[in-house]
Each structure stands twice: as C-alpha cells, then as structure tokens.
Specification:
- The complex is a heterodimer of chains A (about 110) and B (about 110).
- Chain A has about 110 residues and is mainly β.
- Chain A is about 0% helix and about 50% strand.
- In chain A, strands 2, 4, 5, 6, 9, 10 and 11 form a seven-stranded mixed sheet that branches.
- Chain B has about 110 residues and is mainly β.
- Chain B contains no helices and eleven strands.
- In chain B, strands 2, 4, 5, 9, 10 and 11 form a six-stranded mixed sheet that branches. Chain B has a five-stranded antiparallel sheet with strand order 1-3-8-7-6, with no helix packed on it.
- Classes of the chains: A mainly beta (about 110), B mainly beta (about 110).
- At the A-B interface, strand 5 and strand 10 of A face strand 5 and strand 9 of B.
Chain lengths: ~110, ~110
C-alpha cells in the first residue's frame, strides 16, 4: 500500500543535541512538507520541497534543517539552535493541488 | 486578520444532528479548499475538497463554497460520536509552491 511513513513515533532529545526525524513516501509525490503543531496553534510550516535537491524555508525554519536527496525521502533535523522543540511534527506530501497526505507524526520531547 | 479563519469551538451537537462548520478566507485568489479531520494525538486526514462554487456531497459530508462571500462550510449529517474531532480548513492560493494556508481548526463534540 502507498503511504507516507514517519519515524520514530516518539523521540526524546537532550539539551544541546541534534535529532533527525525521518519521512519516507512511496506515493511518487513530488512535493513534501514539514509542519510543527503545538496545542492551540494549528499547523506551522517549517520547510517544503517541490523537487529533489531543492527546498524552501517555511514560516518557522530557524533551528531546523532538511535535505531532499531522493524523491521518496525528506528528513528533518532539529538542531540545538531550536530552543523550544517540544511539539508534534507532521510530514506531508502532495502530487497536485488535490490536497496533502500526512504521515502519522513524530512527537518530540526535550528531556 | 488571519488568512483562513475558523471558530475554535468547541461546537457541541447531539448524536444524529447536523453539525455545521464554517471557514472564511481573505485572499480572493484562493482556488481550492480542503477539510481535514484530526483526532486527538493523530495526524490530519483529508475528508473533502471543493474547487467550484456550490455544494459537493460525499456520504454524510457536504462541503459548500461561496467565493463571492469568501466562505467554505462543512456539514456533517447524522453526526456520530466518532465524528468528534478537530476539523481543519485549508485554502490553496495558487502558484507553483502548492502551499496550503491553514485555519486553526474547530473542535467538534458529538454527544450520545
């Protein structure tokens, strides 16, 4: 079955540590997106990519980095520069303007 | 003013009633509109999309679009407790980036 897979489901980060969230899709979608969701704040766009080897900053890119070396993969690194990383992270993909398909999310907690 | 606005709720309806969720948008150039359902702790799932003025029905769900008044609505007929979730409205403004503009969501509670 086609879909979009995020891993891990839960992730714990120590202070000063970089962590990488995985996002893989087998839907043959061109575009991929990373969102952060905090309670009461809706979905906020971190980064997005429309084609391989190209990506753009979203509204809250500071403290995050991405790569798009393969069409299927769009990993997100939460760096130590992100001072408040505890949140629910959602990866999505799309082929056209027919809406996004979301992964199941990664819940990141700072310990 | 946010680009896509929704009442945060909670909207509470009895089981079997019609739930009406509303969304307004500010950019008249917005072309396509989407309703997503998000259960607590889960990711959003697409339930309806609408591109032209009028109504679009899919099972118990009806999406309505009025571009002149810049609003989109979602009606849920015969509401069930399993419909209790947050409903997110999103608008596509056009252009090459395919970015969606999201509302903050409306929380719906269907009471047995």
């Amino acid at each position: 079955d086609g879909g979009i897979t995020q891993s891990p489901k839960y992730l714990f980060r120590k202070e000063g540590q970089n962590v990488t969230l995985s996002c893989e899709q087998n839907l043959n979608h061109d575009a991929m997106y990373w969102y952060r969701q905090d309670p009461g704040q809706g979905l906020r766009l971190i980064y997005y990519s429309q084609i391989v080897n190209d990506f753009q900053k979203g509204d809250i890119a500071e403290g995050y980095s991405v790569s798009r070396e393969k069409k299927e993969s769009f990993p997100l690194t939460v760096t130590s520069a992100q001072k408040n990383p505890t949140a629910f992270y959602l990866c999505a993909s799309s082929l056209s303007i027919n809406g996004y398909t979301f992964g199941s999310g990664t819940r990141l907690t700072v310990v | 003013q946010k680009e896509v606005e929704q009442n945060s709720g909670p909207l509470s309806v009895p089981e079997g009633a019609i739930a009406s969720l509303n969304c307004t948008y500010s950019d008249r150039g917005s072309q396509s509109f989407f309703w997503y359902r998000q259960y607590s702790g889960k990711s959003p799932e697409l339930i309806m999309s609408i591109y032209s003025n009028g109504d679009k029905e899919d099972g118990r769900f009806t999406a309505q679009l009025n571009k002149a008044s810049q609003y989109v609505s979602l009606l849920i007929r015969d509401s069930q407790p399993s419909d209790s979730a947050t409903y997110l409205c999103a608008a596509y403004k056009g252009g090459n980036n395919r970015k969606l503009i999201w509302g903050l969501g409306t929380s719906l509670a269907v009471n047995p």
